[in-house]
Structure formats: C-alpha cells, structure tokens
Please model this.
Amino acid sequence: MLATRIRMIVPMAVIACAVFAAPSLAGPTLDGVRAKGHVQCGVSQGLPGFSNPNDKGAWSGIDVDVCRAIAAAVLGDAKKVKFTPLSAKQRFTVLQSGEIDVLSRNTTWTLTRDSALGLNFAGVVYYDGQGFMVRKNLGVKSARELDGATVCINAGTTTELNAADYFRTHRMRYTPVTFEKTDEVVAAYDAGRCDVYTTDQSGIYAQRIRLKNPDAHVVLPEIISKEPLGPVVRQGDDEWFNIVRWSLFAMINAEELGVTSANVATLANSTRSPQIRRFLGVEGKMGAHLKLDAAWAARIVGQVGNYGEVFDRNLGLATTLKIARGINRLWSKGGLMYAPPIR
Amino acid sequence: MRAYWYQRRIRGLAWQALAIGGALSLGVYLITNLIGNLEHQGIASGFGFLDTSAGFGITMSLIEYSEQSSYARAFVVGLLNTILVSVLGVACATVLGFALGLGRLSSNWLVARLAQVYVETIRNIPLLLQIFFWYFLALNMLPGPRQSHALGEMIFLNNRGLYMPGLVFEPAGAWAVAGFAVWLIVFLAVRRAARTSRGLSLVLWAAGAALAFSLVVGIPTSATVPELRGFNFQGGWVLIPELVALLAALSIYTAAFIAEIVRAGIEAVPRGQVEAARALGLDWRDILRRIVIPQALRVIIPPLTNQFLNLTKNSSLAAAIAYPDLVSVFAGTVLNQTGQAVEVIAVTMAVYLLLSLTISALMNVYHWRLVRRGG
Model:
C-alpha cells in the first residue's frame, strides 16, 4: 500500500501543483537555486557509472558529475548538490512539477519528450544504444535468433518501445515482462523469468556485474536503437537551460583544449591561446552572458574535471564497467562529442 | 421575504445551494487554472492520445492486443486484468477467510492455534513484501522451460508459467459462449423467482440445449496444445507466475483479516441461540448453517465489504512484479510514454472509484436482502 501511495503521490503532486499554482509558473530557476544554495538534481535509483550511491550515501557517476558541474558554475562549489533518486516512471513528472532543477538520469532524448512533455534536453552526455543480454548456455549469437523469447524490460522507457519495434520489424514474436523498478527487472532476469534482458548497452554492462554469476551471461553484438542520454530541464526558462547546456559544453571543450583538473590552476598564467584564456575567463565576458561570474568554466574543470576525465573516472577501462570511449570520443578523434565554441 | 428566511427548510436549502455553488465555482476555477498552466508549460493535454497506437507489448491480455493497438485498448487490457485478479482474489480470500475464521473458533486446540498463528503472522507483514516473497519463491523454485515439470503430454509447469491446452475462440465461438452465459443467468434468475410456468420452463430448456449444441457441435472453436519451440512453450493457455503470485499474496493477506471478521461475527451471535439449538437436538452442522451463520452474516457483511474494497485497491501493487494491471499498464507505461499525467491519473482514479462503488453497491444490496429476510 505504501509503495502504491508513493507511486501515486508523484503524479498527484504534479496535478496538485498544476491545479493550485498561480498561472505564471515559469519562475527563474537560477534565482531559486541561488536562494536555496544548492542544485536539486534528479538521478537514477542506482545505475553504476551513471548515478549510484556508495555505502555512505555519496553519489557518483557521469550523470552526477553533470549536476556537480552545474553547481560549480552557479554556486562555486561542486558539492552543493542534493539528489532525488527517481524511477523511470516518475522522472518527467517530478521535473515538470518543479521538484528538481535538472534531471540527469540516463534519459534518452526523443522528439516526444522534447516537445509534448514541456521539457528541453540540454545536450548529450553519453551516446548509447539499446542492446540485449542472454545466458551463454542458450547458445544465442545474434539478436535475430530471439524469436519467441521472453524479455525483461523496465516500464516507461524508450527501451520498451524499441524492443517492440525491433521484434515487429524482424517478424519475431516475444513476450515482454515489464517491471517498474530496475532492481526487480534484474532480479527476475537472474531468477530465469526471462531469456533476455534489454536496456541501453551501458546499463547492461552496469547491471551485469550485479548478477549472481556475471560470466554466465553474454551481451549480444546488435545495437538496435540510438539512445542519446543527456540532462533535461523545464521548457520556458531559457536562462537556466543555457547554464545547464554550457556547463556540459564546458566539460567537452575543456577536453578538446587540453584543460584538465590538474593544469587548470596554472594554465591561466602560462597559456597564450586566446581560446583557453576565454575559457578560463581571463579574456572576454563569457560568464556574464550566462549570468555567471568569469571563472565559471575554470571551476567546473577544477572541481569536476573535463569530459575525458569524468568518463574515465566513472565508466572507463579503469573502472569495473570497462566501457571503451567508442563513439563517445571527441569529434577530433573520430567520435561524436562536439561542443560549440566558447566565444 | 423575511418570513421565508425564518423557515427552517428554506434556510437549509439556501445554505446548501450556496455550498454547492461555491464548490462548483472552485472546481471550475481550478480546472481552468490547470488547463492554463499546462498550456503555459507547453505540456500536451486532452484525451486525443487515446486513439494513437501504443507501440508497447503487454505480457497478458484477455482480449486481442498487439503493439499496433491504441492506448485506449491498452487501457481496457489493464482494466480487465485488474478486474480478473480482483474477482479471483475476492473469491479465494473469502473461502480461505471463512475457513480460518471457523478454525479459530474450533474446539480442537491445534486447529485453533494454527489459525491464530496464521492470522497474527500474515496480517502483520506488509503486503508488498508478501507479493515479492511469493513471486521470487515461485521463480526460484520452478525450473526453466527446457526442464519443465510435465503432467502428461499436455500440461507443463516452469518459471514462465503453467501451460495448458486451450480453446481458440473464433468470433462465432465467442458469441456462442456469451449467449450461453446470458442463458445461464436468465435461467437461474427465473428459477430463483420460482414462478416459472411449464411453458416458459420448456422454452428455456430448449434454448439452453440449442446453445449447448452449437457450442459443442458447431465447432466454432479449435484447440491448441502447448509445445516447446525455441525458447519456450508456444500455444495453449498460460497462467503467468505474476498472476499466481499476486493472487496468492492478495488472497492470503486479505483472508487473515476476513478470518477475524468472521470470528467476530460468529461471536456476536448470543450464546443462548446455540444452546437453544442444541437443546432442540440439532447437530453442529445444522446449528452452524441454520442458526449461527445467518445471524453472523448480518454483522460480517459491512466489514467484509471493506476487505473486498481493500483487495481491489491493493491489486494495484501488481506493477512491482510485472503483472499488467491498470496501474502498471495505464498509470505506468501509458502515462510515461505520453506524459499526460493529469488525464491518465484522473481516469485511473475514476476507474478505481467506479470499481469500489460497484462492489459496495452489490454488497449493500446483499446485506439489505439479508436483513429484510430477517435472517
């Protein structure tokens, strides 16, 4: 009963807000964040590498670091973030209702979400794609052999729709088993309820390490969808939208410019590159255009790191996830990570 | 005018009109405000989304459903699944609850203690935990599809469910079944009224025989047998573990409360009644059936209605274990894919309200008849 109530509370809260709020709701999020002194950040309920709490309750992950970057830029301290763990089902409603300032929760950018939900995607943190995991002893080598399979899926995700599309396209039959929480999806797959577990491929690698015997499972080679994951804000507050978007761009630009958390403090004096000097706020008024101070980007790199550092720390080969940079390399190195210039 | 105001009835009406007017205008204000805010935030609104194709699959459906079906159809699928588990749950919980309630009053020490331990254990553990317990117990105890327990050649049990041979109803077959059900209801109603003339009775029997004949011989149906193909059994009817676990948890949990209600109802019957019946030489079976239960039912029915309502509403916990009920399918997946929280939640709440009011009404009619009969 409690769980039902909690599940119902979120949409109800939105309805209550929408019903009772004064007609002009789109208040400047930036002022709100400065007034309360922290960024309220919506994250997952635990996805290693993206947003995951440790045994002391401290959050880490690439999605978490996006929120920390925003806090560093706006409030001067990357630690001034409070996290709201959200299920896939709750996430948009909670953002729409104003309970959080930014949603950074491995969320796929789609047309419907960007338009009909009253939300805006600020950019892409991680280019993902949906994959499949099966037990090795089934002897399946390709997703095309999955006709008749039972598939464990998380409710209310693009995954649910992509799986339906994929099986329809290839004239294969399947039985979806749809859970609300990721923990139950993984537990049911582990208990043998399904032949297949499907989600974004990064998520599959992250969840595989939680199975009873990770080595008994194999990730199939097919990627069946485009899943650009990124932070989301409410539509209609362009000032805040710009800050979130450029906090992310600052991390990507920093990697391209060779600005790292190690050299950012000394670089201002040593470099003659006007690009880097603008980035660090020594030249130009980039911060002021965003209604921030001059050192906003320097603080992001100093306190959180550039995109490459953040990737390596949370997802890279040195972590338990061991995900290669792949298409998430910089554009200059053959990947898709490309940020507009800071000038 | 003043004279009217001093009349109590008129004054009462005036206040009521004022209260209703106030509530209505508040409602109108809130709804216009809501629509304005949704527009302002750029969130789509309205019920137009119900026509568009859903695009997601559902594990279990009592009616034809595919990914191309509309959101409206997905809603009906969820609603029927909710009704299915609620009806089955109410039936199982009532039978089990009555047995336990009688058990608690048994003169047999062991039976009474066992019933007491059951009640005290089950009603003090949160329902959600019990649902998880039964679900993951079933999944972990049962073998995979390729090592299924087989009962003969036709029935198979594994962690994907219980597979049985099934009948495939062609549209004509569905009509025959519906016709037969209608006939059965009419027949029972007429018999109950007990005013049947010879002629009418003959007509009814003839109609029933014709329908039964069309069911059996008309062959509007064909049978399918489950068969292991590829990953799993295909064909036949399947009872999915989610339904079984949810049904077990709801029935077992609610039965503990019903047992206490039954016990209270029976203990509310004055001892003198039982003693008088015994003095008349009735055996315990007749005492229970003719003396105790009819009087106890009058006390039992109202709180029993509460338990039926609770069970129906608790069935919404289904989403936790992937049983595709209304909350899981409609207030879950549909809400998330369309983002139209206000409409979806409003409809869901209205449906639960309607279900609850229906159950209440039926139980009240039953209670009223019971009281009127003076049982």
Notes: The longest strand of chain A covers residues 130-135. Chain A has two domains: 2-127+229-333, 130-225.
